[in-house]
Amino acid sequence: MSAKYERIKQADLSLPAPLRWLTRAFSSITLSVILLSLVCLYGIAATIPVLYLALTGAYTVIGLITVGLAAVAGFVLLRRVTALPWYVRVAGCLAMLAFGGVVGVRLGYLAYEQLNSVPWLLEHRATVIYRLPWLEMTELEFYAWWPMQIILILFVLNMVWATIRRIEFKFANLGVLTVHSGIVVMAIGSILYGHFKVEGDTILWRRDLGGTFENVFYDAHEPALYIDVDDRQLMVPIPELPRYNDYPVGSLDIHLHRFPQVREMLGENVRLTIPGFKPYADLEPVWRPLRTPDDHAAALATSPALRIALGDDDGPADEMHLTLASNMPAERLMERQGYTVEYLLRPSRERIEDLSTSIAGEHGLIIEIPEHGYREAHAIEPGQTINLDELGYRFTIRDVGEYGMPFVTAGYEDATDTQATIEVTTPDGEQFTRMSLYRYPERTQDFVPSDDPAAGPMGERRDPDPSIRLVYLDSSRWQYHLVADRADADVVGLALRMPGGESTFTALPEQRIRVPGRSEGLGWLYIEQIIPLAGRMTEPRPTPRDRRDASEEGTYINSLLPVRVEVDQPDEQGGTWSRLVWMRHMRYPKYPDQVHRPVFVDLPEVGQVRLAFSRRRFELPFAIALDHFEMQPYPGSQIPQDFTAELLISDVDEHGLMHNQPDRHIVHMNHPLNYRATSSAPLALQRIKISQTGWDPPDSQNPAAAEERDEQGRFLNQQRFTILGIGNNVGIRIIALGATMVGVGIPWAFYIKPWLTRREMRRLQREFAEQAQQRPQHPDVDTDDNAITPTEPHPRTPEHSAV
C-alpha cells in the first residue's frame, strides 16, 4: 500500500459517512475484481445454454454446502480435537471430505433429474439467455445492453479513481499507469463500439441493366414494415418485434398506428396491429368454412368441400384430417399408398357409368362409337391391338400408367393423373394418337402427325375427335369415388374400383368407408363434415427445429408476420372492417420474388395498400452504383475464387443529391473499401467499410442460359447484381490503442520498474557510504548511526519524558 494512499485514507476520515464509503469503495482493488468477474459472468451467460447454466448453479451450491461443510468439520477435527492422535484426525478429515463428495454427487444427480423434468428448461435447453422470450435480442445487442454498459462505466470510474488515489505519479510507475490507462481506454472503446456499431447491406444492379445510384442500406437486425399508398411510401420500424420465439395470434399487441405518420397516411380510423409472430415457419394452404363477408374477402379461392378423416373402429384419429375441394382438381383427391379417394360433386350419369364398369385386368379401355351404337370395355396392356373389323377401326395401345409429371395448366396446377396412349386408325385410313386420362377425362387430347418441329414429338395437339370416345379405366389400385348430388347434402354413393378390374357403385348410408391400412391401425375413412362453401386460406405452419438452418434463426429470413388491419366505419356500413394478413419477410422491399412478396389490401375509403415486411432502411452520406461486376472462378470450374465489383461513389447532400463527380473504386473479396464521408455525416457513418458479401449466381437448372453473354462479353443471366456489406468500426482503433498501452505497460511494470528501483537503491547506498566516509571519526564516538553520542542528547517524545 503506497504512502500516498495512506495519506488519502487519513484525509477521508473527515468526509461524511456515505461519501467516505463511496470514495473508499471506488478506490479499492476489490471492486475492480468484482466488476471484472461480472463481465466474465456476463460473457458466460451469453454463451452457455439455459439448462447448463441452471445445472452449473445447482452443482456449485451443492458443492459449497456438502464439500464445504465437510471441510469445515475436518478443519475443526484437525485443529481442535487434540486429544486424538494426529493420524486419526487426518483419517477422519479425509473420511469427512469423501463423505461430503459422495453426498454432493448424489445430490447433483438428483438435481440433474429434477431440472431435466422441468418443461420450461427442456423447451429452452439449447437456448442462450438472450434468446429467451423475455429478452429476444441479438448477440451484439446483448453485449451492448444497458447492464453491460453500466458494468463497464463503473469499471472505468473505479480504475480512474483508484489510479489517481493509490499510485504515485512518478517515472518508475509509468508502466502501471500505462496499463491502467490502457484498460480504461479499452473499456471506453467497447462502450463506443456497442453504442455506434452499424451493420447492414445493400443490393446494387449493374448500370447497363438499369441499375442506378443508391444512397440507402438495410440494417442487418432491426425489422420494419413498409406501407405504400399510391406513390407514397412509409417505413415503420418495429424494434419491439420478437426474433426467436413463437407467439400465437393474440399474444402480442404491437400498435403501428401509434406513429403520427401512419395516421396521416391512412387516416385516423385505420388501425394496424401486430398480434403475433412466427420466427421460422411457412404458409400452408388450408380450407375453412366461409361464414362471414370478411371470410369471403380473405379467401384465395372458394369451393364446396368435404372434410374427411382416417381412423379405426373407435372413430377418427386426431391427426389424420384432410379437406377435399370439389372445384379444385389437385385438391379433390387424397392419395395414399395403395389407394386414392376422390370427391365428385354432381358428376354426369355417363361418368358414373364409366367408373362402375368392370374389366378383367388392371387397365381397361371403354371404346364407344356413338354413330354405330358401339360401346365395349376391354382389358388392355402396352403393345396390344384391338381391331373392330366390322367397323373398320384399329386401336394400338402404346402406353398405360402414370402421366409422368404434375400438370401446369391453369386450374389443374400440381394435379397428377394416370393415362393410356392409344394409336387410332379410322376406317378411311386417318391416323392419330389419343391420350386418355382417368381422373380428368375432360383433358383428354388427340395428337395428329405434323411436319412442324414446334409441334413436338407426338404431333400437333387438338381436341379429341367426338366421333370416337375412348375412356381409360385404372384398376391398378383401390380407387374410391365419393359421389354427392348437392354441396350441402351427405355423400349419396361410392363408385369403387378394385385392383384387378372389378367395380361397383353402392349407396353410403353410414358416411364412412372401409379403406386399406389395417397394418397401421387405420381401417376406416370417416366423412366428418360437409362444407357447402369453403375458402382457401393461408395459415402458418412452424418448421420443426430439426429441419431449421441454425445460421438463419433470428434473422427473420424464414419468419412470418401477421398484421391485423381494422377500419372503423359508420354503423350503416357494417361497423368495423377487419383483415388479418400474413407476410413473409423480404430481404429488400423493392425486389420481390416468387415466394417473398408484399401483400395488397383494399381498405375502405383508402384504396389499395401495399404492405411489405423487411428491414429498417438507413440513408448513407454518399451514393453508390455498380458499374461492373465479375466473378472469377477457379480454373476449370465454376467455384468462385474472387468477386470484383467496380463501384462509382459520390458524396450527397442532405436531400440525397450528388454534388461532385463520382469516384471509381474496386471492391473484391477480403479487400473491403474504407470510405470516409463528408464531415456533415453522423459519427457512426463518417467512415464506412464496404465489403463484398453476395452476388447473382448462375441458374444451375439452366446452364446454357447462365453462360449467355452480350456483345461486350458480359453475362446476361448471372452476375447482374452484387450485395455489399455496409458497416463501421467505431471504437475499434480506441480498443486497439488501449490494448497497445497495456502491452507496452506490462513489460515496463514487470521489468523496467524493478530495474529502476534497484538502480535507485544502489545510488542511495553509494551516497550513504560516501557521507559516512566524510563524517569525522572520534575515539569516544560510536560510528553506528543508531548509537547515542554523549555530546548529542537523545530526542525524547512526550511518552519518553513521562517515563
TrEMBL record:
Task: Locate the compositionally biased regions of type Basic and acidic residues.
Answer: 793-803
Sorted keywords for this record are: Membrane, Transmembrane, Transmembrane helix
Task: List every stretch annotated Disordered.
Answer: 692-711, 768-803
Look up keyword Transmembrane helix and say if it applies.
Answer: yes
Residues that span the membrane, as ranges: 21-44, 50-78, 90-112, 143-164, 171-193, 730-752
Q: Where is the composition biased (Polar residues)?
A: 692-703
Q: Does the keyword Signal apply?
A: no
Q: This protein is called what?
A: ResB-like domain-containing protein
What organism is this sequence from?
A: Natronomicrosphaera hydrolytica
